[in-house]
Amino acid sequence: MISTGRNAALAGRPEGLEQLRGLLDTVLGTLGDAALKRGGPLAPGGPQAAVAAVDEVLGGGRFLADEPSAQRVTELFEAYAAWAVDLTHPSAAARMQCAPTAASAAAELLAATLNQSLHAWESGPFALELERRLIQEMASLVGFGAEAGGTLTPGGSISNLMALLFSRDRALKDTGEVSATGLAGRQVRPRVLCSAAAHFSVARAAGFLGLGRSAVVKVPVDDRGRMIADEARRIVEGFDADEVPVAIVATAGTTDHGSFDPLPELADLAAEYGTWLHVDAAYGIGALFSPKLAPLLDGLGRADSVAFDLHKFGWTPASSSVVVVRDRRHMECLDEQAVYLNPSDDEALGFTALLGTSLQTTRRSDALKMAATFLTVGREGMGDWVEACHDQARYAASVIAATDSLELVADPLLTTVIFRCVPEEGTSVADENAWNAAVRRKLMADGRALLARTKITGPDGTPSVHLKLVFLNPTTTEDDIDTLLTDITAAARETAGQGATQY
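Structure tokens predicted for Pyridoxal-dependent decarboxylase (503 residues):
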């Protein structure tokens, strides 16, 4: 029985641990029941049903009710599980969002119960050292040496922001310490190069950092979304005297094609102009675990910074993002001496925290769940899982290419597959873009399958709606994929005559 109100138990106390055992039984039972009842990757009913489910749990009231209720907590757990996306279901192929290992999920519970933080030594001494060791290993994994540094972040967008912060301060240091004096009055125009297929967080980070979104120069890409190195060189060589190339941002694993920018050529260009090279490997880092796929990341160790997410392709719960820098001295702009957190005499005697490595102060111990997955699966196992997902994508692509009512864009590079539905012989569809969008929505509303959508520009230069599968579940079988594609073609037939007009 859960104690409520003023008698609610704290998780770490004996009475709290006893309640936690009972709650765990409830949660595990709820998870099992939800999977059985759900039937597919998501409960059917679409947005209206999801809204109604939340309304039912709240009973028309508020979270901060006048009368706390243990029963409502149980009902909340049940509804949450029932309406959660089941990432272990083979037809959940919409997002770069992996199912975590059991060990990492248990690590989340341990971390939450003990609630350690990384901003002061006395807030989590073991957690602090665990993150330091993890950062060292992750830096070594990408090819950096002993002088490297880094931190864990809430996600790839923040990791990219931090990398551009370091590059901004280095590039503009000759005109004064930017973090101290700001950008006002500087007679330069900062420029950040990234591909036209780069993640939107690059431009947003430039805005946050005072460089301005207009400072971002989009480099043309080839037909697979890879930055064209010669175009990047042409742009840099054409800069005016007051234009300063702050950073070249390469993408390793674009969100659509899963493409990898040419890292060796971009590293050469960055070295020639003394420009920071940042690699956004949020998704593509998975290739590094596989001996077969690792060549996609050749040149990664020549970057100045690398960002990647283990909650995308590392089987850990979100958030599990990492940013590492080749030379940790570039992180000195984050240094902060707060007498109530990290007094200098404490630090001199080893009572050091990680306040000076992060944009955050209070920060949870995310290293624990990453360590749990690594220790459970191992380097070879991680590679096997990555290659299994790659093989799934290749199989799906082969089936799509052989199906008259589906049209494949290109063979997959990593684990994403882009395609679209095309009308069967004798079937007329007024607007194929709206139709493809409607197929996806129907599958979601029915709870049958979850897939993503994007726009791909064809040979005639016209962008059109396409569908996308993302394979991150190593347990998915070829039979599962056949079932998924059968559901997609069935939904296409069911919606073909409905005259969809919105997309």
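The CA atoms of residues 113 and 385 lie 30 Å apart.
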